[in-house]
Amino acid sequence: VGCDRSKNLVDICGEKNFQAFVCDALSVPIRSGSCDACISIAVIHHFSTAERRLATIRELARLLRPGGTALIYVWAMEQEYKNQKSKYLKEKNGSKDKAEEISTGVAQRPLSDQMPDSSSQDSACPDQLLNDSKDEGCDEKPVADSRLPVHTNRTSFHSQDLLVPWHLKGGTKMKGESADTVLFPAGSKESQELSPVFHRYYHVFCEGELEAACRSLDCVRVQKSYYDQGNWCVVLEKL
After folding, report:
1. Per the UniProt record, which residue ranges are transmembrane (predicted)?
2. What confidence category does residue 171 fall into, taking pLDDT thresholds of 50, 70 and 90?
3. Measured distance between the N- and C-terminal CA atoms of the chain, rounded to whole angstroms
4. Which residues 6+ apart lie within 8 Å of 77 measured at CB?
5. Three-state SS for 137?
6. Domains observed in the chain
7. What mean pLDDT comes out for the span 125-136?
């Protein structure tokens, strides 16, 4: 059984005869202790506070039976790890297009006023903390009236909290297409013909951050923690 915040994506599952329903990751309408296994792929990095991210992990653990396992993937701050670039950085379409020189401006939106949290179909892409917290490790500190940087597609991340621009193909949505279905580099010919551009909130995780959040819950134990193509990943077991 699958669930997603996007009705359009859930409808696609239904058309393919898969079981899926719309729900919020903070409140999944499934009985406690009823799942042998759960997966959360590219969801938790859309929640805008450490408390909400932890609550999402706690909700995932609630669904598991004792001995059940969960797999969590979130985007990594480190898109170059052990001297290897992630697929996200490599997929720069071969050329150093001006298309890549996109909106490195700053969104005039306080953290408290972000896009609704949502699940998505992402593959690895991340960035590190706001203008006044330079890249000095990954201490999460609240910043009053902070501005979120807008990420440049297919580049390394410089902020943990940021907005990623998504350009919708065509000007109109096709059936079952969500606002983040198709991504064009801003400045490209295609993107100039498109409207609108959506900005989605991401919190990208530093090494050890996801694992530390999981270890703070006494109802689970971390079986495994690893890096995979620009993502930090954890396998949990319900105690």
Report:
1. none
2. low
3. 23
4. 126, 127, 128, 138, 157, 160, 204, 205, 206, 207
5. coil
6. 1-30 (no CATH), 33-83+155-168+196-238 (3.40.50.150)
7. 35
- Residue with the bigger pLDDT between 93 and 120: it is 93
Cα distance between residue 86 and residue 79, in whole Å: 5
The CB density around residue 234, as the number of other CB atoms within 10 Å, is 22
To the question of pTM greater than 0.85 for the whole model, the response is no
Q: What is the DSSP string of 45-101?
A: GG-SSHHHHHHHHHHHHHHEEEEEEEEEEEEBS-SEETTEE-HHHH-S-SS--GGGS
User: Residue 232 pLDDT > 90, yes or no?
Assistant: yes
Tokens of 106: 């700053």
Query: What is the 8-class DSSP label of residue 37?
Result: E
What's the DSSP call for residue 116?
Answer: P
Mean pLDDT confidence for 155-183: 69
